[in-house]
Specification:
It is built from 6 helices and 5 strands, in the order H-E-H-E-H-E-H-E-H-E-H. It is an alpha/beta fold. Strands 2-1-3-4-5 form a 5-stranded parallel sheet, with helices on both faces. The chain is globular, with a radius of gyration of 13 Å.
Length: about 140
């Protein structure tokens, strides 16, 4: 992951796709308070795919169920793109079933967090996925 341009420049670029405006506001608040982080907010899976088609990212946080393309569809698309094949993905989902979590992991997600979730834990998980030692 250290080969990603954003990390090499000291700036971490996180794509965040969430259709619920309240959750989007909460997560954006926490992510914006991470030092050296740039957030690419998306309201649905279509926006997420469009954004990743033109911009490099270091990590994606995807809602499991969104309009246009759900999170699993976006992740499967990511894994077909050479520049995105190894980008870490965290799911935030209201789907609490083990079957859905298994589907996300099988598609290539590193972590599945169910809603409601702890935003501070999300930030810690992002750091642990991107930075050696989680710093």
């Amino acid at each position: 992951m250290a080969e990603n341009a954003g990390i090499a420049e000291g700036k971490i670029r996180i794509l965040f796709a969430e259709d619920n405006p309240d959750i989007a506001r909460i997560v954006a608040f926490y992510l914006k308070n991470m030092r050296n982080t740039e957030i690419l907010p998306c309201k649905d899976g279509g926006e997420a795919i469009a954004a990743m088609s033109t911009q490099k990212i270091d990590l994606a946080v995807l809602d499991g169920n969104m309009p246009v393309a759900d999170g699993v569809t976006v992740l499967r698309w990511m894994r077909t793109q050479p520049a995105l094949v190894s980008v870490p993905v965290i799911f935030l989902t209201a789907n609490h079933t083990a079957t859905f979590s298994d589907e996300c992991i099988a598609a290539g997600a590193q972590l599945v967090m169910t809603k409601p979730f702890n935003p501070g834990l999300l930030v810690r998980q992002i750091r642990s996925l991107l930075l050696p030692g989680g710093h």
